[in-house]
Amino acid sequence: MAPRPSDTHRPTIIDVAELAGVSRQTVSRVLSDHPRVAPTTRARIEEVIEDLGFRPNRMARALVTKTSLTFGVASVDMRNLHFAETCSGLQAAAREGGYHLVVTELDPDDDRGIGTLETLLTLGVDGIVLFPSMVSGTDLESFVNSNGCCLVMIGRGAKIPGVVSIALDELAAAQAILNHLTEKGKRRVGLLMNEMFPRFIHTRYEALHRTIEETTGQSKVPVEAARPTIDNGRQAAMRLLAADPDIDAIVAFNDTMAMGAMRGCHDLGLRVPEDIAIVGYDGIPYGEVTLPPLTTMVQDSFGMAGAAFKAMLTCIKEGSPLEGEVHLWPPQLLIRGTT
Amino acid sequence: MAPRPSDTHRPTIIDVAELAGVSRQTVSRVLSDHPRVAPTTRARIEEVIEDLGFRPNRMARALVTKTSLTFGVASVDMRNLHFAETCSGLQAAAREGGYHLVVTELDPDDDRGIGTLETLLTLGVDGIVLFPSMVSGTDLESFVNSNGCCLVMIGRGAKIPGVVSIALDELAAAQAILNHLTEKGKRRVGLLMNEMFPRFIHTRYEALHRTIEETTGQSKVPVEAARPTIDNGRQAAMRLLAADPDIDAIVAFNDTMAMGAMRGCHDLGLRVPEDIAIVGYDGIPYGEVTLPPLTTMVQDSFGMAGAAFKAMLTCIKEGSPLEGEVHLWPPQLLIRGTT
DNA sequence: GACCCTAGAGTGAACGTTCACATGATGTCA
DNA sequence: TGACATCATGTGAACGTTCACTCTAGGGTC
Predict the structure, then answer these.
(1) Which pLDDT value is given to residue A322?
(2) Distance in Å, residue A183 CA to nucleotide D16 C1'
(3) What is the pTM of this model?
């Protein structure tokens, strides 16, 4: 047998109270740093807590306070490094603030992921951080309305009543990319987008499309869409170039697709960046190991995560912003070898 | 105002009971699919539940059942793609089984991460999945003992009483790598390890070290250690080669370091794989975009995650294995361009 | 008709906390 | 000395469930 037989009974606040010869409430006051406890009593209680290894049951506490110091994270795919980094940042910020994270992945095939969000609420989370999903703005609005829930969205800069959005300034980002590409003498730009773009208002696609039209004067912007994996990126790039061989620059939805595009161009015997320039989004570390290293629109995932947590806290304290709130992040183009 | 003014009062089981004209217990029986409820009553209650949008409060339920259908994940770093994939797999398995995940990162500088695990317990998790950490086996054992907690560890194949370990069969993996390298005519192998290896029993290091000695007959195996980032990998590889220029193969702790090593070799003017072979671990997707693509020891993160969840379930049902349990995963060497 | 069995439903208590209020002791001021 | 404020602590109820009982009505068996 082990040193302590672990009678599977975690000590409760009452055990502490009895051992210290006080009432539960006094112990509770010590736990919440209430001022009106005599120093000697406090010391005695703290000693008992230490001895017993007592830790307050956060569920019981949450049941009465209606605050769990926990929030939910709903992500489309944690395997996407940009989201993983954001999660990591959220986790760091949360820990700092005494919060915990319940992480869920949304089913990418579920058009209305609202059910997932509601399940999170039954777990008692104080709020939800949502990564870009198929869930429509109106669905989100009514979700917030009928649940009185704090909702922060990262990655989609839409103004939705009751929701705080934190996102890259897509228009400025698109402009920065196109300025750079035209400076490099590129004249005809194709897009490799995330397959979900036809399904909801995709700000990145719209920003790029519009900026390309304005900058290069292309009448029709070539686009291919696929789930953002390396191989899909490769195939989509090859389709793009087969349909329009004059393309001399590709902007991809993210770095993963961009890497696939590099592969595709290589397979077609095109030189990067001489024959064709390639730009990704996110700035994941692996972009630096390709040959040549990938030019990319960096997303400050840690910064955004920190801002998301801060927004969540103020939302919890002051309620959801009635008008909706949008925090745009300035673009930061990391110019490396593919342009 | 919104359609439903959301008086911030989520309906409770009592609201349902009153509206359906039954007692709470009957509603509870419907929720838990208890057989002894009259079909008509059941139908009526289900209708009210639907109408009200009632969802049972899982915290209240957990408080009495002592089962939250939630488990904790303690990871060193979610930004590591292998861990991110494992998290994703855990999440998928958990969702399938009606469970949820609370994710925490362990502070890499905290030698005894036990505090983090205890905090998870106060959140009411039914068990904890731990990624390789600095926490020592004896600490884990006494943690499990004194808390009666289910603990599954992924990535460290140590036999610890009360703990289920799921890990790559490191010895077989090392042998597979060395067989392959010697077949390719490599004679002198250097190691690029994770900086934490001196601090605890590092099975990967030990397996490689031993196998290299046995296979190549090297008297002393050159090693460099660093935190596994690309740039650290590059620098460590350069140090390794500066100290021992005869090295013709490098085995890295993971793919990220291996990519850094490729960089370092490139900087030194060495050809990969002709002058020097490089092998990584994990099999992350980005290993395929390097030039040449990286040879790597694949880790089936999804499979391991699934096994971890399964182990967790049986542990919850039957209690921790007294003896400790080790599930070794067979090695799978993905031979690509760097060897 | 007395007996037991069973299906269907309800009741009080418990889970481990905190909240709102009550209590008693001590101190302060006129 | 009385009135009142303040400090330190205690008490009952509540949070939203489930568990272990109890209760009732109806039916079958002998």
Answers:
(1) 84
(2) 64
(3) 0.91
Cβ contact B62 with chain C strand, < 7 A: no
Distance (Å) from the C-alpha of residue B75 to the closest C-alpha of chain A?
10
Give the model confidence (pLDDT) of A259-300 as tens digits. 999 999 999 999 999 999 999 999 999 999 998 999 999 999
- Between CA A65 and CA A305 the distance in angstroms is 26
Query: Looking at the predicted structure, is the pLDDT value of residue B6 above 60?
Result: no
Q: What is the pLDDT of residues A164-215, one digit of tens each?
A: 999 999 999 999 999 999 999 999 999 999 886 545 457 899 999 999 999 9
Q: Let me know: does B29 contact A173? Beta carbons within 8 Å.
A: no
- The answer to whether A139 and A160 have CB atoms below 8 angstroms apart is no
In angstroms, the CA B324 to CA B166 distance is 11
Mean pLDDT of A322-328: 91
B9 touches chain A (CB under 8 A): no
The DSSP annotation for B176-236 comes to HHHHHHHHTT---EEEEEETTTTTS--HHHHHHHHHHHHHH--SS--EEEE-S-HHHHHHH
Residue B317 contacts by C-beta under 8 Å, 6 or more apart in sequence? none
Strand duo B333-334 + B295-298: pairing: antiparallel
Name the average pLDDT for chain B: 90
Tally of CA atoms within 13 A in the half-sphere of A112 that contains its CB: 9
Cβ of residue B65 near strand C, that is under 7 Å? no
What Rg value do the Cα atoms of chain B yield, rounded?
Answer: 26
Instruction: Name every residue whose Cβ is closer than 8 Å to that of residue B30 and which is 6 or more positions away in sequence.
Output: B37, B42, B45, B46, B49
Confidence check: pLDDT of B105 > 90: no
Strand D within 7 A of A14 CB:
no
What is residue A72's three-state secondary structure?
A: strand
Q: How many CB atoms lie within 10 A of CB A21?
A: 11
Backbone angles phi, psi at A108, to 5 degrees: -65, -15
Give the closest of A101, A103, A124 to B59, CB-based: A124
- What pLDDT is stored for residue A110 in this prediction? 62
The spacing between the Cα labelled CA in B70 and the C1' in C7, in angstroms, equals 35
- pLDDT greater than 80 at residue A163: yes
- Give SS3 for B295: strand
Q: Between B6, B95, B100, which is nearest A148 by CB?
A: B6
